[in-house]
């Protein structure tokens, strides 16, 4: 028997006759936010994402302007037209335009689950530029509400700002583990 089994055996023996205790789960799972779009834009901006809020009829024009001159990947199912989508090798793409599964106002986070318009995870990690299109109805106040909308069996990517890391001297380096630039377009 190894150390792990020994320790687990002792824990099981110690709690063998312990009474069953109901665990209170009365923590906050939602709360009112007057302006979900505004709070999301502010918090995502705090993480160095460039956030634009546009009306539905201006979405495609804004996407075209933001992606002009970039070879961008457009995953299947994206509900917006993107001029001249990139069809070459992933490592040669200059960016990606995706939708999202849900966005969280409190944390400024977008969550992708590889659903329609979101593509494979690699498509959002390899290119240096990511434009994520969020609809206002996809924004929830907090993490518990977001988790309730997500399928835990799907591959989830949680994005709070451009990819960044710090070295031992706390020098910030962007783009090491994903896109150096994150634009978020909120469509109202």
UniProtKB/TrEMBL annotation:
Matches recorded under InterPro entries: FTHF_cligase-like_sf, LUD_dom, NagB/RpiA_transferase-like
Organism, as annotated: Nonomuraea longicatena
Coiled coil spans: none
Top-rank taxon: Bacteria
Ranges of residues in domain LUD: 97-187
Protein name as catalogued: LUD domain-containing protein
PANTHER family in alphabetical order: LACTATE UTILIZATION PROTEIN C
